[in-house]
Amino acid sequence: MSLDRRSFKVGIIAGVFLVTGIIAGIVFSSRTDLLPSAISAPTETAPPPVIGGTPPNFVPVVKAVMPAVVNISTTRLVKQGGPAQSPLMDDPFFRQFFGEEFFHRFQIPRERRENSLGSGVIVSADGYIVTNNHVVAKADEIKVLLNDRREFTGKVVGTDPKSDIAVIKINAKDLPMVPWGDSDKLEVGEYVLAIGNPFGLNQTVTQGIVSAVGRANVGIADYEDFIQTDAAINPGNSGGALVNVHGHLVGINTAIFSRSGGYMGIGFAVPSNMTRTVMDSLIKGGKVVRGWLGVSIQDVTPDLAKQFGLKDARGALVGEVIPDSPAATAGIQSGDIITAFNGKTVDNTSILRNTVAQTPVGQKVKVNLLREKKTISLEVKITEQPKDVAQADDDTVQGDGKNTALAGVEVRNLTPEIARALRLPPGTSGVVIAGVEVGSAAEVAGLQEGDIILEINRQPVRNIGDFKRLSGKLSKKASTLLLINRQGRKIFIAIQP
Q1: Which one from 160, 164, 225, 230 is the annotated catalytic residue?
Q2: C-beta separation of 210 from 227 below 8 A
Q3: In sequence order, what DSSP letters do the residues of 12-30 get, joined into one string?
């Protein structure tokens, strides 16, 4: 057989197989009932979210924002030395052996300069700069270095340790500034840029996303509503700008969570809305005026939610209503659960506390609450936070009244820094004992420096204001019962004057 005839036969056979396959495929595809149910009808799934095909370009944003982010360097004089504490200093043998001049050198106080670096954000063309309180706290001199290498001396307009925000001013005009953004509109997953001066490296930009919003009980400040981001923040970034992709200021970089002292992917920024409220108050009056409701509140736990007939553990449970407060006037009662304040959902106590504090004094707001499983709406007129509640954290006071149980006891508010140093759980409130007079009734009873007073005669002590009010009521002859926290352990101590 020739090659052409073989090829012809092979072609005919291949054609027959092809036609047979097509017919079989048509018949098979028309009989889906013959397929196993597991594979007969593919399950339809939702399409994945569409992500832009090109990486975002932040160059225009950085060029617009960077000129308004400044380097802040501070200097303060710190005294060292002073009277020695070692008993050897008073030993005649050692004084004779080493000579009086040797000991005299250790008793003369010396001064040294302590320098620190941070960042700031220009928010007005006439020289107002927002930064962190801890960047400029106790500084004797503040220098501000601009992006164009001009240097100015900064003047503190006002500071607010409770939110860790400060405002300084430089004598300049027509400065570049960062426009304000609305931090309430931030969503988890958004791109953000952190701009500052980490480790003194001027004008450093890092990029990340919003990891979380509304972070509280972190132990950094009294009023916490932090934006959490994974944009790299390091020492020196404090006070710098956190901006969105539009170049709007959405936060002031404040702190990091770290076990090494360096970046570990968790940074915190004060939201721009809180920052702006604090800044306006500081510029207007040199202090922060906060709204006050007048209630003692606690988070709703799952167990409490069951007891109060709630589906979810949300809201702020009212434990105490202060007499003659806005809450008392409006009719709020102990046991009420506040679920919304001024149209904002209250998921926990931090949200309520921050929202009330930022409410203008004199404003009437609607409060939704649950009382005995029924929803109630009340109108409350917010007043200014009393001075004893708003008292500065660095104030130190002694127990009121001579010859009382707490005479000679010096206390100060329990700040987040002290709480961290004492390794206390988040949310712990009270006053920490800074000193106990030798020979006083409190010392005899065993009260020590570092103890945290939680209660006086079974009444809660949340701050210096509570301590002054309760200690002022003590009798000179009556025994006083304290509940204290000592190194994480709660104990009662009775003091007899």
Answers
A1: 164
A2: yes
A3: HHHHHHHHHHHHHHHHHHT
* Residue bearing tokens 């939680």: 454
CA distance 226 to 212: 8
Query: Average pLDDT, whole number, for the chain?
Result: 81
Domains of the chain, CATH where assigned:
57-288 (2.40.10.120), 291-386 (2.30.42.10), 391-495 (2.30.42.10)
238 is catalytic: yes
Query: CA–CA separation, 379 vs 329, rounded Å?
Result: 10
Amino acid at 309: G
d(CA 379, CA 193): 41
Considering only CA atoms, which of 397, 405, 402, 417 is closest in space to residue 464? Answer: 397
Q: 10 Å Cβ neighbour count for 352?
A: 23
Which of these is catalytic: 73, 119, 134, 211?
134
| pLDDT digits 0-9 by tens, 153-184 | 999 999 998 899 999 999 999 999 999 999 99
User: Which residues fall within 8 angstroms of residue 119, CB to CB, at 6 or more apart?
Assistant: 69, 70, 71, 72, 131, 135, 195, 196, 197, 236, 237, 238, 239, 240, 241, 253
Question: Do residues 391 and 413 touch, judged by C-beta distance below 8 A?
Answer: yes
Is 296 a known active-site residue? no
Map residue 208 onto helix, strand or coil: strand
State the pairing for strand pair 291-292/267-271.
unpaired
Distance from C-alpha of 129 to C-alpha of 123, rounded to nearest angstrom: 6
Which candidate in 73, 163, 183, 238 is catalytic? 238
Q: Could you give the CA distance from residue 130 to residue 252 in angstroms, rounded to a whole number?
A: 8
Exposure string for 142-155, b = 16+ CB within 10 A, e = fewer: bbbbbeeeeebebe
**Alpha-carbon gap, residue 60 to 487, rounded angstroms:** 52
Catalytic annotation present for 29: no
267 Cβ contact partners less than 8 Å away, ≥ 6 residues apart: 194, 228, 229, 230, 231, 232, 233, 237, 253, 255, 256, 257
pLDDT for residue 91 = 56
| pTM > 0.70: yes or no | no
Q: Under a CB-based contact definition with an 8 Å cutoff, are residues 471 and 399 in contact? A: yes
